[in-house]
Amino acid sequence: MSNKDVAAEAVTGSGKTLAFVIPILEILLRREEKLKKMQVGALIITPTRELAIQIDEVLSHFTKHFPQFSQILLIGGRNPMEDVEKFKEHGGHIIVATPGRLEDLFRRKADGLDLASCVKSLDVLVLDEADRLLDMGFEASLNTILDFLPKQRRTGLFSATQTQEVENLVRAGLRNPVRISVKEKGVAASNTQKTPTRLENYYMICKADEKFNQLVHFLRQHKQEKHLVFFSGILVCTDVMARGIDIPEVHWVLQYDPPSSASAFVHRCGRTARIGNVGSALVFLLPMEESYVNFLSINQKCPMQEMKPQRNVLDLLPKLKSMALADRAVFEKGMKAFVSYIQAYAKHECNLIFRIKDLDFASLAKGFALLKMPKMPELRGKCFSDFIPVTINTDSIPFKDKNREKQRQKQLEQQRKERQENGGKKKFIKNKAWSKQKAKREKKKKVSAKRKREEGSDIEDEDMEELLNDTRLLKRLKKGKISEEEFEKRLTGSQSRLKAETVSDLESKD
User: Which ranges of 1-150 does DSSP label H, i.e. alpha helix?
Assistant: First the structure.
């Protein structure tokens, strides 16, 4: 409100949205020259569609009292031409947008909308969840958008965490900004805790094959409360929901697996205990991950207390295995979830604690109720004496859905026919990566054959042209401009021409 740029950091759930929505309206109301229909006075950029929709809804509660201001939501997943037509018809004094769609509309001059000229009167730019904007790779889009905006504007960066990337953006895009770090009432000035003070944060140490039973037992013991459960592998609730989204009256945030970054942990917990309410969070940790508690305490100033696993809980894993044996869909989902979990674990930013080589794969497989170990690079050469696979052939497990099973049987019959045609051998299906490697090998062989044929003489212009054509063909395949079949066809045709020319050359020499 004092015409200064702002870099604000506040614990999640403290009301950052109102902290920029209300000043935006006050600044626009103070304008000496009223905004015309096609002029933009304020721009709010946020990383996800879900958060953009929520901000637009919050904003609408205020703009309904000020009909002189129009607002528009610009997000992906909708027809951009509809957005263009809506803007041309109603205008957009306040725009709430995601970076990709906004960048696209800035470039759409041919559609009769010059958004660059519309933002010349811009008073306020807000970057909400600024660190997440950069985490999600929107840096290039943001730079493009910033180039279109006038320099004489107020800019605000709002986030629960200020990363180094945000700090770099502050230095590059803000002019002598006021830095605001919001503390909750009663919190000491020296305390840099990043989670709400009314949040009770717990952790539970349990083995991989005990986690599922502990989770189900916990949910049954808290039936009357609302829960938000985060997974990796199986996605019940993704990290899209970890930022800014306000889900009322969440009592517990349960993290079946710790997230891939410490800041994401803070944001997940912040879905409860919002705006002064009480709430609780619980993360399940493997015995080898216990040092993560100290890491969070130091790195994120996030105090936690231990919750002991419940004894004599009902073992549901045999029932899960029975479900997998009875329905191929359940069996396949378990295998995919296990693979996804391993791959996510390997990418954890805190790899000194979350080390894939320390994982108990047998215990983990039991926890996913697997019938057998999947084939994947991370398991190659390992022995799992503690894991006993089922004795039946898993290929015989049918889909419960009759249509899916009918389709699978049809594919199996087709494969059997192909084997018979190939003398009992399984047909080798080449994947894209293999095809590219083969193409490179074929290219090397062809070049080598040409050199031998020429017996050390200089390559003729015609041969050189053909070699260049084949190189161009290979580049087109790599860029996806032609299919593998078309590549093989053209390459074969090229080889046939080469063979004919070679025979012709030998005949002329004879």
Answer: 16-29, 49-63, 80-90, 99-107, 115-118, 130-135, 139-148
Domain count, the chain: 4
**Joined tokens for residue 305:** 């207390």
Question: What are the tokens at 188?
Answer: 């000491």
Dump pLDDT digits (tens) for 415-462. Answer: 888 888 887 666 555 544 444 555 555 666 666 655 555 444 444 455
| Same domain, yes or no: 166 and 50 | yes
Please state, in angstroms and rounded to a whole number, the distance separating the CA atoms of residues 145 and 119: 11
Chain mean pLDDT for the chain:
82
- Assess contact for 341 and 364: CB atoms under 8 A: yes
Strand partners, 157: 7, 127
What are the distances in angstroms from CA 16 to CA 169, 175, 408, 473?
A: 19, 21, 52, 54
- Token pair listed for 84: 């263009």
Q: What angle do CA 504, 506, 507 make, to 5 degrees?
A: 65
Residue 349 lies in a domain: yes
Write the pLDDT tens digit of every residue in 394-423: 999 999 999 999 999 999 999 888 888 887
3-state secondary structure 415-479: HHHHHHHCCCCCCCCCCHHHHHHHHHHHHHHHHHHHHHHHCCCCCCHHHHHHHHHHHHHHHHHHC
- CA separation for the pair 31, 25 (Å, rounded): 10
405 assigned to some structural domain: no
- On whether both 228 and 285 belong to a single domain, the answer is yes
Q: What is the reported pTM?
A: 0.52
